[in-house]
């Protein structure tokens, strides 16, 4: 790393309090008064019906209409990668794929296109995006639904996704608040008639603010309509009953004006949950086997009448639910619910419409396949490319080998079974973050089209058992290039037990590579980190982490392999050399101890040190670091990093503000306090995009111990033609250069040096500069 320290430039820029929240106060208050006028005419039963879900048989969660008021009801649908299990809808790239693009515009466009489909299906609320799990543990089964274990990157992705969704007039629900970092024992279980409570994520206040809550602050700041509490406990209290979390922090400190809804059957009480800040119970009943019974529902009028629940609080709940509905114009001609939106509820076991013929769905896909292909290509990370193996050179290619269980069509059809499947490509993970594709472009399909264009032969074998055993019978003559496709099945409800790709993948790679040395390209379809023992095998000359790409899988990876698109994805997580290098394993208790009523405890003792912060702190060399990704061209930064504090009279703590609507918390936290700029040039042979990343190190002398040595606090993706140079600028907010002061319960800018470095990954930092915002 060529590190040049530059002292701060003296120019002070004009101070601006530009907090950039899209929420329009005047329109919000108007929406609230519409809600209030309905509330004033609603009876208790109607109010209870707004806050308690009703099973509909079409929408996964539902609020029943009130005809008398002309209220259409609310249809809530899974999930974060497009409307799930609906007929004729798109399967978009997963959250992790989107994070790997590091492209704010694509994050917005994806949100907007998904919302267009939800809206056209008549769904008012998207149950997403997911900012929790953040990805504390590399083994977490749902990490891929969210974005990145870095809270800054996840926060930006939440912000842009939510704006994209809500600008289309659809409500987003930021999930899961908070600490839903493992699937194992995520819900309470009953053993021998005794309840074993769900895992408790025990998180200290600073870690909560600087890691796990951070993306939710961005979500609230972006105006998110709803926040979903999770299945887990936080500090031994269920997240959906945690008053400190929902009332003090979310609605108090972050100024959240919308509604908190429960995850599916995550409500465990009536008045207790309501007093703790829960505003909506979904799906409503106690369980799928106790339809008609609820902690809420008819108990709500009774609790108001017997004085245990105040009418004010009930009105507050209804107001929080109806205000976003009016604010986003959902009372004005919203599309009707497509009865085929949930044709396959519980894989064919549709409890409520048994026997009724399934209608054909409304086709809502539009031209979204173009965007899906683009995002998946942009989220493919080129990890290794020796001897310019990629892009493929058609002039020397007559015979292409395609290998691995991930290359072809799923032999089980288009519905993913709960436990994955052996032969067939993986475009998305399982559970509520999955989707029902109307088609899949497989890697094999795309290689075949490419081969037809260049007049090459394609040979293949998808049987990993045979490949691992070195059985290549039928492959002749031996291919000019061997493309090996690997997959890693990840699903809601189950954590990963291994970080290896599935189906004896390491043996398959080594086996193919030994017969195809110097011409073996490995592509992984995975929801997060994989260990890659084979990455250092010299016979493997190229590796692409293509993540979960959505329905255009083959086209998007072929765009990268052929060089039609220059790869620009960067890892949104760390790939370790060995699984043991990661910290924060899944808590898994076996034997009699697992049956203690509060036995399941997950102490977040690593504090702020997850993912690259842990590797940096422990000085562990990763295989591929956070932020890393190659290109077919090369980029250089200019020689200087300009750093200019935006104002002179900065105070350590933000000035106090009393605003009736400060979404995201104190607006001063979102104010720009430092501006930085740097030049970036394309010095290589072809046009391409790169991501300039900015990391901040706070002065060790003036911050509490256990602070990471550097954290991501800015990034910009830029497209450059050959020899082109552009100036990239970064606006750092007060929050970006503060730490959470537990004693003061506020964000504080430390006195002394603040080091700012920019580069192309967390370990490839090219220039550093130092500034002082507050004198020590
Ligand atoms: C509340 O209004 C509904 C109509 O929306 C009506 O069916 C119900 O009887 C009313 N309940 C009471 C307690 O008045
Ligand atoms: C959890 O407990 C820790 C330690 O007492 C405390 O610092 C933190 O604020 C608590 N967090 C929540 C969300 O209750
Ligand atoms: C009031 O009603 C609620 C809801 O049915 C019930 O749980 C609670 O026990 C009642 N309290 C009293 C004092 O009657
Ligand atoms: C998709 O169609 C919309 C209009 O329906 C258009 O604005 C947009 O540019 C199209 N996108 C692509 C990638 O073709
Ligand atoms: C895969 O190969 C193994 C070993 O050669 C063989 O036993 C198995 O039947 C094959 N599976 C399929 C689906 O062809
Ligand atoms: C937890 O332990 C159970 C029982 O031994 C095992 O089946 C499961 O795979 C383990 N899960 C993880 C994530 O290690
Ligand atoms: C690489 O390929 C050569 C040629 O087939 C083989 O001899 C060698 O063992 C392979 N290396 C590894 C690390 O697999
Ligand atoms: C790269 O290409 C050169 C020249 O063809 C060859 O000698 C060398 O072995 C190749 N390296 C790898 C890793 O395949
Ligand atoms: C800081 O200075 C700016 C003008 O440079 C002024 O608008 C602002 O009120 C001052 N803030 C404080 C806390 O003095
Ligand atoms: C903030 O302003 C509101 C409305 O003017 C007032 O009711 C409240 O007491 C104020 N809060 C603080 C902390 O000053
Ligand atoms: C900031 O940079 C200076 C000069 O390279 C170095 O001495 C100091 O340790 C750095 N401080 C932090 C907190 O990284």
TrEMBL record:
Fibronectin type III-like domain boundaries: 690-762
Gene Ontology terms, MF aspect: beta-glucosidase activity
Enzyme class, broadest EC rank: hydrolase
Gene3D superfamilies per record: Glycoside hydrolase family 3 C-terminal domain (3.40.50.1700), Glycoside hydrolase, family 3, N-terminal domain (3.20.20.300), Immunoglobulins (2.60.40.10)
Entries under InterPro entries matching the protein: Cellulose_deg_GH3, Fn3-like, GH, Glyco_hydro_3_C, Glyco_hydro_3_C_sf, Glyco_hydro_3_N, Glyco_hydro_3_N_sf, Ig-like_fold
Signal peptide: 1-18
GO CC list: extracellular region
EC number: 3.2.1.21
Metabolic or biological pathway: Glycan metabolism; cellulose degradation
Gene Ontology terms describing biological process: glucan catabolic process
Subcellular location: Secreted
Keywords assigned by UniProt, alphabetized: Carbohydrate metabolism, Glycoprotein, Glycosidase, Hydrolase, Polysaccharide degradation, Secreted, Signal
Chief location bin: secreted
Cross-referenced SUPFAM superfamilies: (Trans)glycosidases, Beta-D-glucan exohydrolase, C-terminal domain
Catalysed reactions, as listed in the record: Hydrolysis of terminal, non-reducing beta-D-glucosyl residues with release of beta-D-glucose
Role description: Beta-glucosidases are one of a number of cellulolytic enzymes involved in the degradation of cellulosic biomass. Catalyzes the last step releasing glucose from the inhibitory cellobiose.
Membership in a protein family: Belongs to the glycosyl hydrolase 3 family.
Stated name of the protein: Probable beta-glucosidase G
